[in-house]
Amino acid sequence: MNIQGKIKSVGSTEQKTPKFAIRKFVIETADKYPTVIEFQLINDKSVLIDPFSVGDVIDCHFNVEGREYNGNVYNSLKVWKIEQISKAEPIHAESNAQPTNKEESEDDLPF
């Protein structure tokens, strides 16, 4: 399966056991009603998110996995490939441009 969305956050890698590490990240879809989804990167896949930044739009290829424990079912979305769709828009500082109309520079009110 795959889904596209904008990266909202990226967590650090958590070493759970000597042979098991997990890293989580969150994306938001661009649907009419956006959805926020948390994905997991396991072991050697945890570096797949490194080339990307918050705000980048990516395509996540993942498997849905579920398991039952003590009568409860737990699901996880395990990513195995990430492709970049677009980079985050850079944030520009407000320009220091001066108003060209003399009246506008003396008073900000439109009347």
What does this structure look like?
By secondary structure, the protein is mostly beta strands. The chain has a single domain (2-88), classed as Nucleic acid-binding proteins (OB fold (Dihydrolipoamide Acetyltransferase, E2P)). The protein contains one helix and six strands. The chain has one helix spanning 102-106; strands at 2-10, 14-17, 20-28, 36-42, 57-69, 72-86. The model has no long low-confidence stretch (mean pLDDT 88).
Short description:
The protein has 111 residues and is mainly beta. It has one helix at 102-106, and strands at residues 2-10, 14-17, 20-28, 36-42, 57-69, 72-86. The chain has one domain (2-88): Beta Barrel (OB fold (Dihydrolipoamide Acetyltransferase, E2P)), CATH 2.40.50.
- Structural category is mainly beta
Q: How many DSSP-defined strands?
A: 6
Put simply, the count of helices is: 1
Largest sheet: 6 strands, antiparallel
Distance between the termini: 57 Å
- Shape summary: globular
Helix content: under 10%
Poorly predicted spans: none
- Binned strand content: over 45%
CATH class: Mainly Beta
Which homologous superfamily in CATH is the superfamily? Answer: Nucleic acid-binding proteins
Q: Provide mean pLDDT, rounded.
A: 88
Give the tally of structural domains.
Answer: 1
CATH architecture: Beta Barrel
Order of helices and strands: EEEEEEH
The CATH topology is OB fold (Dihydrolipoamide Acetyltransferase, E2P)
